[in-house]
Specification:
The protein is of the alpha+beta class and 342 residues long. Helix content is 25%, strand content 39%.
Length: 342
């Protein structure tokens, strides 16, 4: 049945409309230079993403976030019990005070014996011993100060905060659970800096320059021009294509969602094409044709179509430069009483 329709629609080129169709306007087919775009499927992903792990031991006493929460920078994520860490800090502070007292006493002894040694009242051995003790006390003081810094840092590890504004993508710990250093607790990413990632076929890699602007189109129709992009220096083993990354503008709120698919367009070298208005086409299912003018009548001719360009359609075959076609194919069809040809 379909073959019969094709025959009925297109196998009648010798049939033509009458000279009465001369009032129908015609369009001169010419070659036009139009921008060519390579459209790729791309996915949005964060530039900064990672996980948060425990750096001290303890029991989880509070969890301030859950999966899908948007958190600002510095927000409390997880609180770990700090009993032992607080005790360690108090112990370090006490050791620091003892070291400071030792330094004060050793330094006063050194000064006293130094005056006596100049007067010849004490032996050099006694002065050297006081000097050694003063130096040892100074070293112990430095060690005590470092211990306080370490103890304060260990106490800070019990409060886990967000390193940047982002979204929590995974939680691996529950309230009351005991954690150890190195155990992963949360995972997330920053929504402020996002990018699109696509696979660029090898044959187009030479056409992408550092200054080439890319155009991204989101599912809601929003389009952006991206000027910062990066092409990997090696191909993916599976697809034999290059990974292409293009940075999106920074955003204050998560508008562009992680993982959504978008269209990434790259401009190619402009080429001359045959373009005709869409109104010149006569369509029947997936088959297309135009009315071409020959002397004082129109003849129906099948054409093969390419891409659409703002109200125009690219002709791949069926027409040549200089052909004249009816601007309104359905007007010609109407003048023939609804028949494709007379």
């Amino acid at each position: 049945m379909r073959k019969f329709l094709v025959f009925l629609f297109f196998c009648i080129p010798s049939w033509f409309s009458s000279a009465a169709d001369s009032q129908v306007a015609v369009f001169d087919v010419t070659a036009q230079t139009v921008p060519e775009w390579l459209v790729l499927d791309a996915q949005v992903e964060p530039i900064d993403k990672g996980s948060v792990a425990a750096q001290t031991s303890g029991r989880v006493s509070a969890i301030g976030v859950d999966v899908n929460d948007v958190v600002p920078e510095g927000h409390l994520l997880i609180q770990i019990t700090n009993t032992s860490q607080t005790a360690g800090l108090d112990q370090a502070k006490a050791a620091l005070k003892a070291a400071e007292a030792r330094v004060s006493y050793a330094e006063s002894q050194r000064k006293r014996l130094a005056d006596l040694f100049k007067k010849g009242s004490v032996a050099k051995r006694d002065y050297d011993a006081a000097l050694t003790e003063s130096r040892a006390a100074s070293s112990a003081l430095k060690q005590a100060k470092a211990g306080v810094v370490q103890a304060r840092e260990n106490l800070g590890y019990t409060r886990i905060t967000a390193p940047y504004a982002g979204i929590v993508s995974e939680r691996m710990v529950s309230l009351g659970e005991t954690v150890n250093p190195g155990q992963v607790l949360l995972a997330g990413y920053s929504f402020e800096r996002m990018r699109v990632v696509a696979s660029l076929p090898i044959r187009y890699a030479s056409e992408l320059q550092e200054s080439t602007p890319l155009k991204v189109t989101f599912p809601d129709g929003q389009s952006l021009t991206l000027t910062e992009h990066e092409l990997f220096q090696f191909t993916s083993p599976g697809s034999h294509s290059f990974v292409l990354r293009a940075d999106l503008p920074e955003q204050d709120s998560p508008v562009w969602k992680n993982g959504i698919w978008v269209k990434l367009a790259m401009p190619l070298e402009e080429k001359a094409k045959l373009l005709i208005p869409e109104t010149t086409l006569l369509r029947q299912n997936e088959l297309s044709a135009v009315y071409i003018q020959e002397q004082d009548h129109f003849i129906l001719r099948q054409v093969r179509l390419g891409r659409a360009h703002d109200g125009y359609v690219e002709i791949l075959s069926g027409l040549k430069v200089g052909d004249k076609i009816a601007t309104d194919a359905y007007a010609v069809l109407s003048s023939q009483g609804g028949l494709y040809a007379k």
